[in-house]
Every structure is written in C-alpha cells, then in structure tokens.
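Lecture notes, unit on binding sites. The following record was shown on slide 14. It pairs a sequence with FE2/S2 (inorganic) cluster.
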Amino acid sequence: TEDRLCETEQPAGGLHFIGKKDELIEAKRSFRTVDGRDILIIHHQGVFYAMDCYCYHAGGTLENGDIEEINGKLCIICPKHKYKISLCEGEGLYRGRNPQEEPPVYRWYSKGVKQRTHTVTETNGEIFVKMSSQPGWIDSDYYQGEKGKIERAKAEAEKDETKKNEKEIKSFLYN
Ligand code: FES
C-alpha cells in the first residue's frame, strides 16, 4: 500500500526532522521530544500520525495503546482507563445514550478535540513533524512541559493512594 499522511493541515516551515521513514515504519510507535513537547509518532495501516504523548484524561502514556476503528474513525485507546482518541483529529469519543429514548440505544458521541495532534510530512524518505499551532487550550496541553511532569506524577500518586485505601478497607473488612 502507498504511504499516506494524515492531512489535518498543510505544513509550511517549522518542520522538525523525526527520522527515516523506513525506521519509523518498522518501529510503528516512536516517542520524540520536539520543542520541549513529548509526542508520539504512529505508523498505522500505511499512514503516519502524530499526537501529544500523554492522554488528556489523566496523563497516561498512549505509546502502547491499541488502535481500533470507532464510528468510522481510527482511534487509539489509552491503556490506562480506555479513553478513545481519534488519530487524525485528537477527538475524544465516548459511548452514551439519550435518557429520553426508550428503549435506550447506545451511540458514539464526540467530546470535541481533546488531544493535540501534529502534522506529519515526508520528503525523500525522511519524516518531519510540524507542531500544532492551533490557538487556545486543548486538554492534553495540561500534561506537557515541566508542570505537566508534576501533574503526571500527581495522577500516579493518586492512583497508588486509591489502591492503598482499597487494600486498607479490604483488610479491615476481612480480618
Ligand atoms: S489517562 Fe488515559 S484514559 Fe485515563
């Protein structure tokens, strides 16, 4: 199959060299830090994608997330709590139902763009990324940079704390 690129916007200048195309195809998932931002480059079914590496929900790393087609869109599924994020647009997708509807029918809905995505281009077998310049806040911004590192550590610590509490409750109940 011919390699295509995820066309969300046309790049012009500001291109960062990511690596050789062959190597990135082989790796399938590649982590890079560009302009102080941690991103994930994905090669899937002949197409390159790039997005912020940490999930907008609680900063989980997306690197090992499965990819599935949901509602006609390829999505990465965050390994941490299984949130679904479309590869091209960074849209958060969720299944829900309209409470007015009887019987209830579950459908996929979009929360809008939650994960910042970046543009991938190829020139002579080399892959470049143009970082997103979309203005305004996108939820995945929260877990980037120095502050993001602290927030990610906090999210981890909270998880450990919940586990510890669950253990304590269990040992209280069963001992
Ligand atoms: S951190 Fe990704 S789903 Fe919660």
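Take-home: The chain has two domains: 4-144, 146-175.
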